Amino acid sequence: MIHMTYEKELNLIKNVTKKIYEDAILTVKKTSFKGEQDIVTSTDLYIERHLIDAIKSNFSDDFIHSEEYHNKTVLKDRTWLIDPIDGTSNYASNLGLYVVQIALYDKADIVLSYIYAPKFNKTYYAIKGKGAYLNDQKYHVSDQHDPSNFMISMVGLSHKQSETSYFKAILDLAIEHKYKTRMLGSIGLELALTSESIFNLFYTNVTNLWDLCPGVLLVREAGLLVVNENFETYKLGDQHLFVCRDTQTLNIIKEHILNLN
Q: Are the CB atoms for 167 and 154 separated by under 8 Å?
């Protein structure tokens, strides 16, 4: 057991999330659309509703910013960010590349994150300044061996995005250097895997905070480099996010993107 600030909040999320997910998938899955090709399932709604109930029962004064029921709210004071299923299209298609993810915003920053990947039997969490944990074991990017094959992960190239120049630039870089690329369709999962050094580089132009915040804190606490398109420290609200395993990777993508501009 780790003893730190936000221990009560972390323990609540650890205690309820898996149970809520398991109860949700026992119900009949119904799929609908909330926009052009934008899928929502009854499972998303069930998980989000019950997570909010659990949080408000314990922290009644806290605010909620979530994908389904509270997506117009802003971050203020103590705000919980909830993405009930990050990778809903994958889940709806019975593809196990999805996560349940939660973060807590407090004192003008993300201070807690939790990512549960059911099909991988992995639970990631982090508290600001206290490190990253996978299945209750602390880990850091420096613990990982440099992989022999350079892998890039990207997410956000879809019908909803008209700006594709960075995706094209990264694909050109991958082709030129024979890097491997993956697009898994779940920001939370891809950031979690990046935090384990499975990917050398992650890129997205998605800006939804419920998509980003849990994974951003996790990769930071795992020791990765997190920057925007100007290769300055990434801040919430920036339009582009790059996560690099090390300075060598950062320099490779920086040179390529700067040449693009």
A: yes
Measure Cα distances from 152 to 34, 174, 230 in Å: 30, 8, 19
Q: For 193-197, which contacts have Cβ atoms below 8 Å and span 24 or more sequence positions?
A: 193/153, 194/153, 194/219, 194/224, 194/243, 194/245, 195/124, 195/132, 195/139, 195/141, 195/219, 195/222, 195/224, 196/134, 196/139, 196/144, 196/222, 197/141, 197/144, 197/145, 197/146, 197/147, 197/245
User: Where do runs of H (alpha helix) occur along 68-137?
Assistant: 88-92
- The closest of 150, 90, 141, 147 to 120, measured between CA atoms, is 90
Give 175-213 pLDDT, tens digit per residue.
998 999 999 999 999 999 999 999 999 999 999 999 999
Question: How far is residue 238's CA from residue 254's CA, in Å, rounded to a whole number?
Answer: 17
pTM: 0.93
Q: Where are the alpha helices (DSSP H) in the chain?
A: 7-26, 42-58, 88-92, 165-177, 187-195, 209-221, 247-260
User: Which residue, among 205, 184, 211, 195, has the nearest Cα to 82 in the 3D structure?
Assistant: 211
